Amino acid sequence: MNLTLIIPEIFLFLWALLILFVDFFTAEEKKHRLGPLSLVGIVITVVLVVFSGQGQAFGEMFSADYYSLSFAIIFLGSAFLAICTSIDFARERIKHQGEYYALILLSTVGMMFLAASRELLSMYVSLELTTISLFVLSAYLKTDLKSSEAGLKYMILGAASSAILLYGISLLYGITGTTVLKGIQAELVGSAFPGPLLVISLVFIIAGFSFKLAAVPFHMWAPDVYEGAPTPITAYLSVASKGAGLAAMVRVFFGSLLPVTSEWIPLFMALATMTMVLGNIVAIRQSNIKRMLAYSSIAQVGYILVALSAASELATTSMILYLLVYMFANIGAFAVVIAFYNHSGTDEICEYAGLSRRSPFLAISLVIFFLSLVGIPPLAGFVGKYLLFLAAIQKGYYWLVGVAVLTSVISLFYYMNVVRQMYFRKPTKNDPVKVSWSLRLALVLSLIGVIAVGVYPDPFVSLISKAASVFVY
Amino acid sequence: MPVPLGYYLGLAAIIFTVGVIGVLVRRNAIIILMSIELMLNGANLTLVAFSVHLQELSGQVFVFLVMTVAAAEAAVGLAIIVMIFRNRESVNVDNLNIMKW
Amino acid sequence: MFDLAFYILAVLILGSALMVVTLRNIFHCALFLVLCMFSIAGIYILLEAEFIAAVQVLIYVGAVTILMIFAVMLTHQLTGKTIRQVNDQPIAALFIISSLLVLTLLALSKTTWEVASSSGVSPSATELGRALMTVYVLPFEVVSVVLLVALVGAIVISRGD
Q: Between chains, do A200 and C103 touch, taking CB under 8 Å as contact?
């Protein structure tokens, strides 16, 4: 058994305990320094992940391969950016900062285990580690009713969706007699299935995962939770928890259910269409920028589902790359929202009027992130969407790509509405919006990511395509 | 096994469904949590029945871990409910004004 | 003999589960949940899964439902009131769910289960314990982290300050 492989996870776990421990001996006014301390832990973990080597430990429970490596880097990256955006916010508005940072790190540990797992049991347990930490984090603003409601709603729907997923898994276990993904695949190739029971179990599994990804029609929790949760947690939720759901979903479907693609591809196509159309159209009506970004992130899941229904090596590459690109653009956009909120205490889009004069840096960053989310070249979003659509075109899903392109055009409306407010409306106030060092760091890193992946995507694509080759299509 | 496997699975499916109905129909957050426990029990019973039928361990290990996770989930959920009650004097999900589903 | 026990337990489980979902008084719901969990433990005994039955009684009856009863008592003003307990779209929800149930039951009845290959007995507590400490040691440890998170989270959230 090769224990060195799980050193990064163990290290990050111990670092979370260290944060809790240091928190104990830190005076209240110095607790904001725990944020930079957690950033250090994440950076060391990234180094450990890159150099810890590849292989398997605990049988099928933990497999360090390029797939888990790329997801681990995305999860650690989004935790890093989320903590950067948290530091000022937490100092002003959050009690128990030590536990706050520790829980972010612990949920990241869960995600890393999740991406590395090739067995349903360990997958379920790590998924729960991730979501239970996120339940607590989204309810963290105790005196803010919206936040507690967000926590309650997320908790109820998260627990119910886990139960639905578990029921699907239990049926799949009964059909195939194993919880190891490889074993399930072997069983499905050899037998006379698909029977009706397999279809039912797939419906339950897809419904459970769709809740985690906030795909329509299982999205109803997302806007409320995103609006109510502390904004840095919203940023983290919108990228990392979706990424965790996606990592598990791709492992399960491409790692074990490829022999029965005809049973689940139509379901994914339907989900993708509904998600893209509804997410983008409802986003137009929103007046709160967090809610707008919530619907926009629902829509982004739709594009990822387009590739998921393509089920090819290119599809996996494009999904992971898209998640990376989406992480930079989305957390970047949330960083601007947080900077503005820290200054003015509001999330209403109309308050963004004249932001270009109050803070040219924030305004131009938000424009760049939005353009990347739409998919305008030469930004990273274009590369991501191009590969997603290419994967679908290779399989001949022209109409699905048509819907995706059309809804991307629709998405321009609501993004440009914010841009119009910032550039063509007179500001109601004239005081400049100050941006702290940590938010500036998050913004600059996201900008570099959005531009670098857009201008020079080759190294990213070649690394991620190695991750995609862990599955046999 | 004198009782056929299908009976256990059918019973589990019905328990699960009753739980889903509770989640969808009831408005009190504590009862919704109870209904989620029913759903989990339906899944657990399916796992144990299959595990015994297949003479295979992993199903029962799964159930053991699911129960532990369920207890953790219930603890966090009830903590959130108690906090909301303290702030708001209500645990009905409809009284939470943004709960529209 | 086994048949009779199964039917009695099944009736108990379904009856109490329905009570949990329909009764107005939350405290009664919690008590029926205890009954339901106990009866499910009985089913596990019928299946010769004694370890799981014991854990079911310990965790569900001993911990989860007691936690629920605590929460009910902490929010006790509500239990006396008669409040409308059903939300706006029960008919649509019931329709979708019951059709899914019918489909699942149909699929279950259509599937023929091959008889288990080995004729050994059901896994014993010893084997389960050994498996937890060897093959399944990683998820077992991850669950302990889940418990830590729940502990920290519940304290942080419910601490009054």
A: yes
Distance, in Å, from the CA atom of A82 to the CA atom of A240, rounded to the nearest integer, reads: 10
Task: List chains adjacent to chain A, taking adjacency as at least 3 C-beta pairs closer than 8 Å.
Answer: B, C
**H or E segment at A112?**
helix A97-116
Question: What Cα–Cα distance (Å) separates residue A141 from each residue in A28, A452, C51, C156?
Answer: 17, 36, 41, 11
How many other C-beta atoms lie within 10 A of the C-beta of residue B100?
10
Task: Test C149 with A129 for CB contact under 8 angstroms.
Answer: yes
Confidence of residue C82 (pLDDT cuts 50, 70, 90): very low
Cβ <8 Å between B45 and C43: yes
What phi and psi, each to the nearest 5 degrees, are found at residue C137?
-70, -30
Distances (CA, A) of B51 to A82, A178, B46, C121: 42, 9, 8, 11
The gap between the terminal CA atoms of chain A, to the nearest Å, is: 29
Residues with Cβ within 8 Å of C136's Cβ and at least 6 positions away in sequence, in order, are A61, A121, A122, B58, B61, B65
Structure tokens at A227: 């609006």
Q: What is the pLDDT of residues B12-50, one digit of tens each?
A: 999 999 999 888 888 788 889 999 999 999 999 999 999
ipTM of the complex: 0.92
Q: Which residues of chain B lie closer than 8 angstroms to A224, CB-CB?
A: 98-100
Domains of chain B in start order, with CATH, are 5-89 (1.10.287.3510)
**Which helix (DSSP H) or strand (DSSP E) does residue A285 occupy?**
none
Element (H, E) at A56: strand A55-57
- Nearest chain A residue to B75 by CA: give it: A132
Which helix or strand (DSSP H or E) is residue A25 part of? none
Interface test with A, best of C87, C105, C142, C159 (most A CBs within 10 A): C142
Whole-number pLDDT of residue A267:
92
C-alpha distances (whole Å) from C38 to each of B6, B50, B60, C41, C92 are: 21, 20, 18, 5, 32
Q: What is the pLDDT of residue C83?
A: 45
Distance, CA of A118 to CA of A248 (rounded, Å): 9
pLDDT, tens digit, 9 for 90 and up, residues C55-74: 999 999 888 888 888 888 88
Burial class for C126, CB neighbours closer than 10 Å (0-12, 13-18, 19+): exposed
Which DSSP string corresponds to A144-168?
A: -HHHHHHHHHHHHHHHHHHHHHHHH
| Alpha-carbon distance A33 to nearest alpha carbon in chain C (angstroms) | 19
Q: A333, A369 in Cβ contact below 8 A?
A: yes
C146 touches chain A (CB under 8 A): yes
For A239, the token pair is 């990228």
Least trusted range by pLDDT, from A122-126, A301-305, A429-433: A429-433
Distance from CA of B43 to the nearest CA of A (A): 5
| pLDDT at residue C114, as a whole number | 64
Fold of C1-78: Four Helix Bundle (Hemerythrin (Met), subunit A) (1.20.120)
Mean pLDDT of chain A: 91
> Is pLDDT above 50 for A84?
yes
Query: Chain C residues with CB inside 8 Å of A177's CB?
Result: none
Section B62-84 average pLDDT = 92
Nearest-CB residue to B71 (from C33, C64, C78): C64
- Residue C76's pLDDT is 64
Quote the pLDDT of residue A432: 84
Helix/strand/coil for A62 = strand
Alpha carbon distance B97, A153 (integer Å):
12
